[in-house]
Write a structure and sequence with these properties.
The protein is α+β, with helices and mostly antiparallel strands and 421 residues long. The chain has 2 domains: 2-209, Cytochrome Bc1 Complex, Chain A, domain 1, CATH 3.30.830; 230-420, Cytochrome Bc1 Complex, Chain A, domain 1 (2-Layer Sandwich). The chain has 16 helices and 12 strands. It has helices at 49-56, 66-76, 100-112, 118-136, 139-151, 165-169, 173-183, 199-209, 257-268, 274-281, 313-328, 334-351, 355-367, 375-383, 387-397, 413-416, and strands spanning 2-3, 8-11, 17-22, 28-35, 79-84, 89-96, 189-195, 230-235, 241-249, 289-295, 300-308, 404-409. The strands form 2 sheets. Strands 1-2-3-7-4-6-5 form a 7-stranded mixed beta sheet, sandwiched between helices. Strands 8-12-9-11-10 form a 5-stranded mixed beta sheet, sandwiched between helices. α9 crosses α15 (387-397) and α12 (334-351) runs antiparallel to α14. The longest helix is centred in the N-terminal third of the chain and has 19 residues, at 118-136. The radius of gyration is 23 Å and the shape is globular.
């Protein structure tokens, strides 16, 4: 067992890892079961299967119906939910500390004993298809998937988490069971918990309720993608044009991730950010504009989004490009750097007052083989970033020859092609 300042970790003989953070000042516990499988691990014919199985695990077990599960957590006064990402799937609960044992047993039952009944598969297929339709009818959401697909076309990370209508329609029971058995393995599972819980108690619960035998988990193929300059326009008769301009970025373990967070915050991380001030406040060209970044095992990306009227699309893209160029040229000011650091530290501290956020941090970093740092260490890393660090990173990332522009709106490609020429 390894012990650090704020978390404890144990890896059991089965391969399951247990990582906990004790918060004796609260009366709740957040528990997450993190499986190292996401959309990047799916073959083309089963794209969307990780998310589909996430749905199916709520449909009942060998001894519990879906209603039994829902009613049990209602009686416990707890939350129960799940989400799928590109590199992992998480099933989680947050409940009173006195109900931890009961909630854990039900969640473990869901994980290990899913029914995968044919009728459940068919009914949930319809639910997921409606979810995909809703997503595709929401251009302000769909644009993000389209951007990542454009940026990472030949990389597994470019696959959409929900899958495609064609693939989900053709999922069979054998497909579901085969994928589940190949990925839901003990050494592909992290149990993370934060709250009023002792580490030994959580380890005992895992030993008591998980009977998975050690098996070799699938080897994930990792490689750095080749990103090329590109523009893709998805013609749709919308009232707004939805724009994302972005670039490839660093991997999750890169020490420059703190400089990236500051760069992102300065560019589009809040109401005082450059994009918000230049595009919305000064010119009134958009209601929503911001930047964001995502980091993965071998790569990442940073992107700027804006929604604007079609006739203002070119101007908004040019304003984003101007801000990227100014940051590259060393235009970040001392007050901007200070505001970004304080904003990041404030959001970090406020977020970590929640047991759910602390559990999520433990599980996400552990499942992605990241570095678990204490709050003090995180603050130190943020404070240590200098203006030159941010400028250097901006020059490394904002290469016009590797910029990707993705747009949804009522126009054809030729109207906007010159914007990334």
């Amino acid at each position: 067992m390894a012990k650090d300042k704020f978390f404890e970790k144990t890896t059991l003989p089965s391969g399951i890892s247990v990582v906990t953070e004790n918060m004796p000042q609260v009366r709740s516990v957040a528990i997450g079961f993190w499986v190292g499988v996401g959309s990047r691990d799916e073959k083309e014919g089963v794209n969307g299967m990780s998310h589909f199985i996430e749905h199916l695990l709520f449909k009942g077990t060998q001894t519990r119906t879906a209603r039994d599960i829902s009613e049990a957590f209602d009686v416990l006064g707890g939350e129960l939910n799940a989400f799928t990402a590109k590199e992992y799937t998480c099933y989680y609960t947050r409940l009173l500390d006195e109900h931890v044992s009961t909630g854990f047993e039900i969640l473990a039952d869901m994980m290990q004993n899913p029914r995968f009944d044919a009728s459940d598969i068919d009914s949930e297929r319809n639910v997921v298809l409606e979810e995909i339709n809703l997503h595709e009818d929401s251009p302000d959401e769909r644009i993000h998937d389209l951007f990542v697909q454009s940026l990472l076309t030949a990389h597994p990370l470019g696959k959409p988490i929900l899958g495609h209508i064609e693939t989900v329609k053709n999922f069979t029971k054998d497909d579901v069971i085969g994928f589940y058995k190949s990925e839901y393995l003990p050494d592909n599972l992290i149990v993370a918990a934060a709250g009023n819980i002792e580490h030994e108690k959580m380890v005992d619960l895992v030993k008591q309720h998980f009977n998975l035998k050690a098996r070799e988990k699938p080897v994930r193929k990792e490689f750095v993608p080749q990103i090329e300059k590109k523009i893709e326009v998805f013609t749709k008769q919308t009232e707004q044009a939805h724009i994302i301009l972005g670039v490839g970025a660093i991997r999750a373990s890169d020490d420059r991730r703190f400089a990236l967070s500051i760069l992102d915050n300065i560019l589009g991380g809040g109401m005082s950010s450059r994009l918000f001030q230049e595009i919305r406040e000064k010119r009134g060209l958009a209601y929503s504009t911001y930047s964001y970044h995502s980091l993965y095992a071998e790569t990442g990306f940073m992107a700027a989004y804006a929604g604007t009227t079609p006739e203002n699309t070119e101007q908004v893209v040019q304003l984003i490009q101007e801000q990227l160029a100014d940051v590259k040229d060393g235009g970040i000011t001392g007050p901007e750097l200070h505001r970004a650091k304080e904003h990041l530290k404030g959001q970090l501290v406020l977020g970590l007052e929640s047991t759910g956020r602390r559990m999520t941090r433990l599980g996400k970093i552990e499942i992605t083989r990241g570095e678990l740092l204490s709050l003090d260490e995180l603050v130190e890393r943020i404070d240590a970033v200098a203006k030159d660090d941010v400028t250097r990173l901006a020059n490394d990332l904002f290469d016009p020859n590797m910029t990707v522009l993705t747009v949804i709106g009522p126009f054809e490609l030729d109207k906007l092609a010159h914007l990334v020429a």
